[in-house]
């Protein structure tokens, strides 16, 4: 009760000073900070694994002692007084060892407490350093630990600097792994983050700008994809036209005809309602169409060759005709 009134009096005096001369008070939650520092959580997990192993050893020892007691109880009628006393001494010794082991591992000055203190100490030092830096930078007059023995009757969230302390510690850890250029970029990024923490409107503005930039980038990517698709379509048309011309020159079936034939073949394969006779008729019709096309092409080819031969023969005959001698004047 005395402690409660002392804390109340202390907070009341701080509040009066804050009203009179603008005293600035902040607080941290050490437990929350420790839970969010990666180095501490990893080391704490290892320590908890050790503690779990110690507990298992203690339980195994208890089972062993219980077995000794049961054996003595069962065989007591068959043993001499000296053997009984000897076994009782052994059981008492085992129980004494168990108590000593428990005290050594889980007592007030045991390994669990001492190793936890060793684990927390470097993190506490970092927290105290970070708190001092933040308090000097933000002009805090007092910074309390919410998880300490000091009772806090009320604390507004806006005065909680725990997140800033965590950020400061993690930043320091990252900086140790950065090059000079990366460190400079990181400091610039941290400066922007600090400005946004102090001015939420600035953070909202940055978020809106990032969303606009993302929308612009998406629009550019969509336009680029549309242009690429258009280019590909034009190139396909050019390739098809070139293949068509080449087919006509060589006297083979054109690419367009091949596509039509492929389409007809696929359509015929997909049709399931028709009978086998209809499929055969279609196949025969396609074969006849192909034969007619080939025959027409061959006929056209022969005609072109015949015309060429006739023209060539006519040129040779004209060339071999004797020239008429000019008539002499009388």
From TrEMBL:
<dbReference type="InterPro" id="IPR005632">
    <property type="entry name" value="Chaperone_Skp"/>
</dbReference>
<feature type="compositionally biased region" description="Basic and acidic residues">
    <location>
        <begin position="256"/>
        <end position="330"/>
    </location>
</feature>
<feature type="region of interest" description="Disordered">
    <location>
        <begin position="214"/>
        <end position="330"/>
    </location>
</feature>
<feature type="coiled-coil region">
    <location>
        <begin position="37"/>
        <end position="104"/>
    </location>
</feature>
<dbReference type="InterPro" id="IPR024930">
    <property type="entry name" value="Skp_dom_sf"/>
</dbReference>
<feature type="compositionally biased region" description="Basic and acidic residues">
    <location>
        <begin position="180"/>
        <end position="192"/>
    </location>
</feature>
<feature type="compositionally biased region" description="Basic and acidic residues">
    <location>
        <begin position="214"/>
        <end position="249"/>
    </location>
</feature>
<dbReference type="Pfam" id="PF03938">
    <property type="entry name" value="OmpH"/>
</dbReference>
<keyword id="KW-0175">Coiled coil</keyword>
<feature type="signal peptide">
    <location>
        <begin position="1"/>
        <end position="18"/>
    </location>
</feature>
<comment type="similarity">
    <text>Belongs to the Skp family.</text>
</comment>
<protein>
    <submittedName>
        <fullName>OmpH family outer membrane protein</fullName>
    </submittedName>
</protein>
<feature type="region of interest" description="Disordered">
    <location>
        <begin position="180"/>
        <end position="202"/>
    </location>
</feature>
<keyword id="KW-0732">Signal</keyword>
